Structure formats: C-alpha cells, structure tokens
Amino acid sequence: MKKLYSVLLVLIALQSMASPPTIPTSNLSFPQVDGGYFNIAWTAGNGAKRIIVCKAGSAVTFLPQNGVDYTANTAFGSGQQVAAGEYVIYNSAFTSFFLTNLSPATQYFFAVFEYNGTGATTEYLLSGFLTGSASTSSAPTLQVSNAVFSAVTTNTATVSWTKD
Hints:
This protein is mainly β. It has one helix at 2-15; strands spanning 26-33, 38-43, 49-56, 81-83, 86-92, 96-99, 107-116, 123-124, 130-135, 144-150, 158-163. The longest helix is centred in the first third of the chain and has 14 residues, at 2-15.
C-alpha cells in the first residue's frame, strides 16, 4: 500500500508541472530608439509569458532554470542580475515595452525566453529562443547656430537656423 501511495504522489506531482512552450518568440524590433531608452517589440510564441534578459556590450549567456521565477525591472540594471552584467528586464505576457536607464551610443544584447507555469512548475523554452541587439543613439556633437526668428505675429513665428 505504501508503494501505491508513493506512485500516486509522483504521478500527481508530474501532472502539476507546466509543459514547456514549443514556439519561440520572433520578430524582435526596436520601433523607437533614443540615447537613453528603447521601445522593444516582438511577436509572441506560444508560452503564457516570457522573460527578456539584457546585457550591454556583448551577447547574453544566461539560460533560465526550470522551476525558477525571475524578477524583472524595465530600468536596465535594476532587475534581477542573473549573470555578470546580465539583467532580467521583462517578465510578462505583453508584446512590447520601454526599456530605460540606458547609456548613449551603447550596444545592448537581448535573449527572449517563452515560458509556462509559475514557481516550481515554471517550464522555459530553452532551445530556439530569440536573440538580438540594438544600439542607443549617440549624443550630438555640434550645436545649431544663427537662429533667426522672422514673421513674428501674436501666435506664430518662423524659425530658421544653421545646422553645423
């Protein structure tokens, strides 16, 4: 009888595990790029949610572990650090967000992992996950000059300048 209970407990535990997704995220894009932020968008795979890990300067090397939830923050460097310089920047079901707290003229690398479940039942898609990179804009090095205001009225003005 004791063996029967043990077998039943194992079967119940196996049934409560989430199954890993089979279709990865695709079409990573950056619709808005600035010196301090990105708007990041993608096409979702078939996971209930996904995490995105980001690193400045080189490719992400981290792979999430099944049965583990990760804490994200959309301000780079504020989410859970999962490897040296690698941060979880997103953990949700939506298909776009703004990543802030970035440095100008810097290349950022991303890895997107689909998953199902929560806590101990979390199952990640660890093969075929999406990777990509993008660079923030650099700060301008020259100022405009010779600003001229003409055709000034009570509610309009024409402004021209020289771009150096």
